[in-house]
Sequence to fold (97 residues):
Amino acid sequence: MEAVFLTFVFVLAIFLGFELISKVPSTLHTPLMSGSNAISGITLIGALASVKTDSLGFAAFLGTLAVVFATINVVGGYAVTNRMLEMFKKKDQGENK
Fold:
């Protein structure tokens, strides 16, 4: 019963996330992405805490994998956000001459 309930919640989250993201105007994508990067930073802290376990087996491997993926997500997200913000900056008139 628990697996069916968790699957239902997961599928519901997929549909809800898709509906919410598709309704966001393009001018709000950058602030939304910055907020998502902050949440990924919290995920990174949780992943670091999970690596600190006493067991050196599968849990430590999954914790290390979580740290790697969360780091990639945070760094890549901030790089994309920075690039998007560069698009909104005004170009200097002196550079075109």
Q: What stands out?
A: Helices lie at 2-22, 29-51, 58-87. The mean pLDDT is 80.
